[in-house]
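Re: weekly structure request thread

Next one in the queue (268 aa):
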Amino acid sequence: MTEAATLHRPGTPCWVSLMVHGLGTTQDFYGALFGWKFVRVPGPEPLSAYVRGVLDGREVAGIGQLPPERRLPLAWTTYLATDDADMTAEAIRGCGGTVGVGPLDTGVDGRVAIASDPAGAVFGIRQAQARTGTGPGTAEVGPGSGAHGTPVWNELVTHEAAWVGTFYRSVFGYDVETTGRDGADVLTLGLDGRPVATLRGVGEGLGRVRGSHWMTYFEVDDTDAAALHVVELGGHVIDQPRETAAGRVATVTDREGAVFSVVRSAAR
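Done, posted below.
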């Protein structure tokens, strides 16, 4: 069910995961929306169960079930690759971030940690061993680089992109380019001349409930149809389908409120 092991360039978004309260209903939701099949594997503590979404034989995302007493806000977590989780964790602390969990060994997944940047956005770091992680990062990254249901892009939504961009550049060695149009506060993070993620500063437009956060984009064949399907499956549409430079995008939630975006890439 997995590809041959190929390590990602440090800093590359290499995996996305979601911790939920109802694992079965969440599997039903994403299985129907994206066509994922699921394989149960040993998960990190304290998760009581953990599955991986599989698309065309490739593992594309992880979903774990939280213990009943852990009533936490739910969100997709972007993991950034590292060759040394312990060293990267120290760099995160030294640059003003926080390491909340780990680094810890998770068996075949390697060594991982959960951290937050100085603006409070949560992300993971992942030192892979046997598994490569999700598709983007082994091929050209960005909308249009995957089939329906594939995570294809990651974007940080924050107050001020330039300020937090200094943190990510210091920790991961990104090339940082200003790419916002008409004065928009947007930076693109690059590795070896290849874009891997964006930072979007929205100032006072950042909601108090979510705060600064990473957003996962999943490729779809039809954005409007996907948004409608989300509602039919018990989710909600936050931002209606709209045209962007990257393609047609909608921001939605699943049944438990985890936010993500669906995109029909302009490149497809």
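The first strand starts at residue 13 and ends at 20. The mean pLDDT is 87.
Next request, please.
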